Each structure stands twice: as C-alpha cells, then as structure tokens.
Automatic annotation (TrEMBL):
This is TRAP transporter small permease subunit. The keyword Cell membrane applies. Belongs to the TRAP transporter small permease family. Keywords: Cell inner membrane, Cell membrane, Membrane, Transmembrane, Transmembrane helix, Transport. The chain crosses the membrane at residues 21-41, 53-70, 91-116, 136-154. It comes from the Bacteria. The lineage of its organism: Bacteria, Thermotogati, Deinococcota, Deinococci, Thermales. The keyword Transmembrane applies. PANTHER family: 2,3-DIKETO-L-GULONATE TRAP TRANSPORTER SMALL PERMEASE PROTEIN YIAM, SLL1102 PROTEIN. It is found in: Cell inner membrane.
Length: 178
C-alpha cells in the first residue's frame, strides 16, 4: 500500500501543478475577453484569432481543471444525502462511483478522442475561419485532459481504499491527503 500511496502523491503533485497553471488561465482569459471587447467596440477591430484563443483557454480551464477539482473535492456532488453519511460509507460510494463511472467514462473519452486528435494533428488542421488558429492543439487537449482526470481518479481511488483498509486516517483529518 505504501507504494500505491507514493503513486497517489505523485499524481496529486502533477494535478496540483497543472491546476495552478489553469488558475492563471482564468485571469488570462478574462483579460483577453475584456481586451477583445474593447478592441471590437472601442476601435472597430475584430480578430477570429482572439475569439478562438478565448474559446481555447476556456476549454483548457475545464479540461485540465477537472482533475484539480476532483483532487480538492470541489466537483459537483449531490450533498443532500451524501453529507449525512458516515465517512466510511462516503468512501465506499466514492470507490464504487470511481470504478463504475469515472474511470470507464474517462477511458472511453480518451479512447474515442485520441484518434480524432491524432488525425487533426497529422494534417495540421486549421480553423476554417479567416485568421483563425490551428485546431489540432485544442483537439489534443481533449484526450490529455481526460487522461489527467483518469490519473486523478486512480489517485482518489487509492486514497479511499487506503482509508477503508486503515492505512490512512479519516478523510480530511490529515491535511493534503484527501
């Protein structure tokens, strides 16, 4: 179990690093959006590249921020019942949900999106809009974002199993573990 917990810590560190970059993307996309609006309405200047860059950054925030949200337990959860359950029952629900839903869904998206992204990369796909950006980098972000989510799902699964087997304290009692 010690080796698995080390793997979990490594995945958590990767997710944390990517998440911190994504946090800066939020500021960058807000500034780009404001600048784009200022240029369009203040100076009658518009660019498809600026608009597409906004879309790309917004997509990256969600694709790479998902694993960060999962790590910090900030994802959407129906807490009406879950919050009233014991920590052990919550851990079991997380284990079952991760194994039956999260990991298969993330693996499925990776499996379906990888060939699509590689086909786009192989032809160096560009936006059909005049002055648009290359499309292949954002298409490649889809399987990569879900790969990061898959890895973080593995990390969360390891931590829940470690808790259920007595190798970790109650979730949240040891800062930075769960």
């Amino acid at each position: 179990m010690r080796i698995l917990l080390q793997v979990s810590r490594g995945i958590d560190a990767l997710t944390e690093g990517v998440g911190r970059v994504v946090l800066w993307l939020v500021l960058l996309v807000a500034l780009l959006s404001a600048g784009n609006a200022l240029m369009r309405y203040g100076f009658s200047y518009s660019s498809n590249a600026y608009l597409e860059a906004q879309w790309y950054m917004f997509s990256l925030i969600f694709l790479f921020g998902g694993a960060y949200a999962l790590k910090h337990n900030a994802h959407v959860r129906i807490d009406l019942v879950f919050g009233r359950l014991s920590k052990r029952t919550q851990a079991w629900i997380d284990v079952v949900g991760t194994v039956l839903f999260l990991l298969p869904m993330a693996a499925g998206v990776i499996y379906l999106a990888w060939p699509w992204a590689m086909a786009s990369w192989s032809i160096r796909e560009m936006s059909p809009d005049v002055g648009g950006l290359p499309r292949w980098p954002i298409k490649l972000a889809l399987p990569l974002g879900f790969a990061l989510l898959f890895l973080q799902g593995i990390s969360e699964l390891i931590k829940r199993v470690a808790f259920l087997t007595g190798h970790l304290p109650l979730p949240g009692e040891e800062k930075g573990v769960m």
